[in-house]
User: What shape does this take?
Amino acid sequence: MITLLEGFPDNVVAVRAEGQVTAQDYDKVLIPAVETALTRSKRLRFYYEIGPGFTGMDLGAMLKDIGVGFGHLGQWERIAVVTDIDWIKHATQLFGFLLPSKTDVFGIAQAADAKAWIGDENPN
Assistant: This one.
């Protein structure tokens, strides 16, 4: 399940993933949030918190994830992945170079640092 998180700047799409993430989560929550944010800003930032209760994504969700990521490829400015799940941390670090945006990985205990980084207006 994906839920929207509040308290972020208008150019930040912030979500938390718990349990099983489905294509329906993308259709009902994430994609509309991205499209709404794009009406406010041409460049977006993505805060993605993956909690300890995350059990995975179905195939439809994986395909939607690729579609959202690459469909707006030039519009992502920063991506913060916040998780304590090792394989997600390693995969993000391994494949982050494929994205034209700055991408960083934080542990759950560093969520406040991730929020500060994703909202920081300093481009460096």
